[in-house]
């Protein structure tokens, strides 16, 4: 880090959020935005950066703080132009991968893309101990945007070919990636891991698929999308993650809530346990998963019903969203 850029003192903000369980106070939205913008710009010392991220991890983010942080995140990179298609883009964050279950997020992306939906996935290329979506997509012949590509033309070509686009976070939003990588030093996730799952990279409205892993995040994200999220940025499907990924659990569907103009509607009810499981990959490694997904796309294996329902709901809302944008 260039020490000449350290012009922002985070100490006053750390004092607010790190006073202990009873004394900690939430930041105002503008204060949260200013601080996170300074962190993204590299204007905060490493010591203060670590102190703030740990303090926030202990306190937990408020709805207003998340709103301010996200304001800073979405201003830190160039927004992407939306292609002219029948559908608004569908944004699928992929930052968890899988450890035990096969990662079927690439299947969801490919099924949507072949219907003509502009599908943008963003996330990590690799993650030790996990099978990432990028690894599976590579085996399916879908290569990520690289630092050498003209990203706009790369995306347009992929959308025209009805392929999803995988945009690694280090090229889509390099300043955000830098804060994600602090985890490698601290050993803890931080607020940035929540922010990348809810950010909207397009200039025009888009449908975001958002997942949560812990019940408290269901409450916080529901409140955010109901109150603080700018409605003009598009719609959101919120669901419990499948090992953290935003794809429906092939074994039984999770509840999915649709936020449209900040109003929540339950689209899919949580499915009861089933006696007979659908056909699934025999193992969760990238090669086996990619081969099985190829069979599904070639109609040699059926699409698991919960994922088929997720595709149907995405198509309906992405089409509505595009039409409403041009009314």
Give the structure's gist in a few sentences.
By secondary structure, this protein is of the alpha/beta class.
Polypeptide structure, described:
By secondary structure, the protein is an alpha/beta fold. It folds into two domains: 3-74, Up-down Bundle (Transferase, Pyrimidine Nucleoside Phosphorylase, Chain A, domain 3), CATH 1.20.970.10; 90-325, Nucleoside phosphorylase/phosphoribosyltransferase catalytic domain (Pyrimidine Nucleoside Phosphorylase, Chain A, domain 2), CATH 3.40.1030. The chain contains 14 helices and seven strands. The protein has helices at residues 11-17, 29-40, 46-59, 63-74, 105-113, 133-139, 151-160, 169-172, 174-180, 183-186, 191-198, 215-228, 286-297, 305-325; strands at 90-94, 119-123, 165-168, 206-212, 234-240, 256-260, 263-268. It has a seven-stranded mixed beta sheet with strand order 3-2-1-4-5-6-7, with helices on both faces. Helix 12 (215-228) links the parallel strand 4 (206-212) and strand 5. Helix 1 runs parallel beside helix 3 (46-59), helix 2 (29-40) crosses helix 4 and helix 4 (63-74) packs across helix 12. The mean pLDDT is 93.
